[in-house]
Amino acid sequence: MTYCVGLLLNDGMVMLSDTRTNAGLDNISTYRKMFVFEDPGERVIAIMTAGSLSITQTTLARLREVIDSPDSDAETSIMKAPTMLKVAEIVGNMLASVRAEIDEKLSAMNQGASASMIVAGQRKGGAMRLFLIYPEGNFIEATEDTPFLQIGEHKYGKPILDRVVKPTTSLADAQKAVLLSMDSTLRSNLSVGMPLDLCVIERDACKVTSRRRIEAGDAQFRAMSEAWSKALRDGFLQINL
Fold first, then answer.
1. Is the pTM of this model over 0.90?
2. How many CA atoms, within 13 angstroms, populate the side-chain half-sphere of residue 213?
3. Which domains, from first to last, does the chain contain?
């Protein structure tokens, strides 16, 4: 399984993903789940994935194939689409097509596969937008009321986001929020694991402005986790019934 979270804020976008993939208790692997496509200053698109690797890897491979094709156009390539809404439609259509194709192959064994994606980005002159793409290809969009989207094992990391994140949240605080959200998930679910990929895209930069891989044992992440645990314990002890 996995956990990915994306935030849409007034100052920019923040994305965080883990890298653990499970195919059973004795088969745990590390795969990148955050992918960035950019033409710096013109367009930036970040895609995070959760679910069947066969579906997500095939979807991304085909999206790249279209980008590199000399016959690609605004209807087929995420790097030529006129709006982020069109980007979400292209990704959704490709995801649904791949999922249906793989489902058909698995049906003979009475098995199925599914995947979902978060798509974030901005093109020059356009607004920042953040979408959650469902396995069927349809999608929802982050709004001022709900400025974050999650895929994978999202329930453990949601409470802090509900309490802390608002459109006015600074990018520095947003990074802290998603990392603490991930820390809660790591503590509660063994199917989510290090290393982590963190990406920040500042408003109107149309490029990744900060990107970091956080490895297991990272001193800064460990210190933040311990400080958060202490703050929770202290707060718990101060509450009187």
1. yes
2. 11
3. 3-238 (3.60.20.10)
